[in-house]
Specification:
Immunoglobulin-like; nine-stranded antiparallel beta sheet; five-stranded antiparallel beta sheet; about 525 residues; mainly beta; 3 helices
């Protein structure tokens, strides 16, 4: 309903949820910063890693106004190259930030003499080529879409040149007749791109792509565009196997059927398509539940298209619906394994992707929901393109997706501040199994009827790679007891866990099974 009187209420709930989650993140980051010692003589920075594995990635940090000195890693004593992104912000590569831990840096006075980390990082305006040590990316001067992503070390092209689409091409499909789903006969994509450098330094280069405006959602030739304007940024960081993309559209109100996509045609014949699901990876077709949709998939973090020689991974933190092989526009009414008696379900082999194209389903107004059909205004979609050698690796793909959705955080450290954790590089909890992640670390739940058998610290683990076997938790403090618990945090029968000292803290051995979620309770030693 276009003039829904409840729209303001519904929108406010989404806005409030966003504000609360942002506030919770900022409070947690600030609290962690307060727990870390500050440098003795100058301000500092702590980079925080909330994932279960050690990470090397780009971090953004706040520095004093117009600071331009030396950034020094307190663990190694070495200068770290950085790039200013504003009067009070810098970007730098934080190396080997420990799992569920932090790494600290000191902001010293003096000349920054750190060498540029990647001599291959460059942009050539004449050829439209963006490059670092891992990738050579070519951008079409006319359409602004990506025509090539060449993996240097693998000597492999990632973009399918035979596809009618280019990588990161915005595709709009309207149907003003209102009588059915959308079709390709009125399909529109922008052209006449203006390409410029948004930011260029020793750590990263960001290319900005803009298109002539289409006021009222109409192009000069009269075709519907669905947007007032559209644009994108493409970023390559130094020594980083990743192309970051941000697509921004200013949506117009449209009440007739419409769909919007971003195309990612990867070069891979007859690929194995695997995407992140709630409990782990899902192989398209073969591992879908009976009755599952075949047109679009709800992707958690990543979608991967692979063959024996390697593959490409598309990650996103905010655009979870994807279609594979071609734009389907709800072409498959029947679904394999339907629980009713319908006999119109498709042959499974007919729906297996024959090529590596992935289409991010950015928006549509075809479905009946309790939200307003036509919504307007600016919105940005984020993607990351990366590649790998060999076949699909569930643990590696999960890490890629989680890293995209959960960037490293940073917090300022005050001079002389005393916390409970020292300067340097320290993990507060780590695992020895790449396919197991830490979901939760929190105080145990308590209520008036709770059992004294509960232990004060709750940790929840999830296995995401389909592997059985024991997992060892490494904690930097003494643990006097550990036990398995159920999801309501009550102890399980015969659930006592082995705890031993390794000279640096405690090691707890936990039995894990493929795709299981395991809850355990710990009692840190009073000593």
């Amino acid at each position: 309903m276009e003039n829904d009187p409840q729209w303001t209420v519904k929108k406010s709930r989404a806005d409030q949820a966003s504000a609360l989650s942002t506030k919770a993140l900022h409070c947690a980051v600030d609290a962690m910063g307060q727990s870390i010692d500050g440098p003795a003589k100058t301000p500092g920075i702590a980079v925080l890693n909330s994932q279960s594995w050690k990470r090397t990635d780009i971090a953004t940090a706040t520095v004093p106004q117009h600071w331009n000195g030396r950034l020094v890693d307190t663990s190694t004593g070495r200068q770290v190259p950085y790039q200013h992104t504003g009067a009070r912000t810098i970007r730098f590569q934080a190396a080997q930030v420990p799992a569920l831990g932090y790494r600290t840096y000191v902001l010293e006075a003096g000349k920054n003499t750190a060498a540029a980390p990647d001599p291959d990082l460059q942009w050539d305006q004449n050829t439209g080529t963006l490059e670092n040590s891992y990738y050579r990316v070519k951008i079409s001067p006319r359409s602004g879409a990506v025509t090539s992503v060449y993996g240097k070390s693998e000597r492999r092209e990632l973009v399918d040149a035979t596809s009618p689409f280019r990588l990161n091409q915005y595709v709009y499909r309207p149907n003003p007749a209102r009588n059915s789903a959308t079709t390709p006969d009125r399909q529109w994509s922008p052209s006449n791109a203006a390409i410029s450098v948004a930011e260029q330094g020793t750590l990263s280069i960001t290319i900005k792509i803009t298109y002539p405006g289409t006021p009222g959602g109409k192009a000069a030739d009269g075709k519907a565009t669905g947007v007032e304007s559209a644009g994108a940024t493409l970023t390559l960081d130094a020594n980083t196997r990743r192309l970051d993309i941000a697509d921004t559209i200013d949506k117009t109100k449209v009440s007739t059927p419409e769909e919007g996509y971003f195309a990612f045609p990867f070069k891979q014949d007859n690929p194995t398509v695997t995407y992140g699901g709630t409990g782990g990876p899902v192989a398209l077709v073969d591992e879908q539940a009976p009755g599952a949709a075949m047109d679009w998939q709800a992707v958690r973090g990543y979608a991967d298209v692979s063959g024996p020689g390697g593959g490409a991974t598309l990650s996103t933190s905010d655009t979870p619906l994807m279609e594979f092989d071609h734009i389907r526009s709800m072409e498959l009414t029947g679904r394999p394994g339907r629980l009713d008696t319908a006999d119109d379900h498709p042959d499974l082999d007919s729906v297996r992707p024959k090529n590596g194209s992935v289409f991010s389903y950015a928006f549509n107004n075809l479905w009946g929901t309790n939200y307003r059909q036509s919504q307007d205004g600016p919105i940005t979609y984020h993607y990351t393109v990366s590649n790998h050698t060999g076949g699909f690796d569930a643990a590696a793909a999960n890490r890629t997706g989680e890293n995209t959705g959960d960037p490293l955080q940073s917090v300022s450290l005050a001079t002389g501040h005393k916390g409970s954790h020292p300067q340097g590089s320290h993990s507060l909890l780590s695992l020895d199994a790449p396919g197991t992640i830490v979901q939760t670390v929190k105080p145990a739940y308590r209520d008036g009827n709770s059992s004294e058998a509960r232990l004060p610290l709750t940790i929840r683990l999830q296995e995401v790679a389909g592997a059985d076997g024991p997992v060892q938790l490494h904690l930097p403090y003494a643990v006097s007891a550990a036990q398995l618990e159920n999801l309501t945090e009550e102890p399980r029968r015969e659930g006592q866990l082995s705890v031993r000292s390794d000279g640096h803290g405690s090691v707890v051995t936990v039995p894990m099974h493929a795709h299981n979620i395991v809850t355990l309770g710990l009692r840190p030693s009073a000593d």
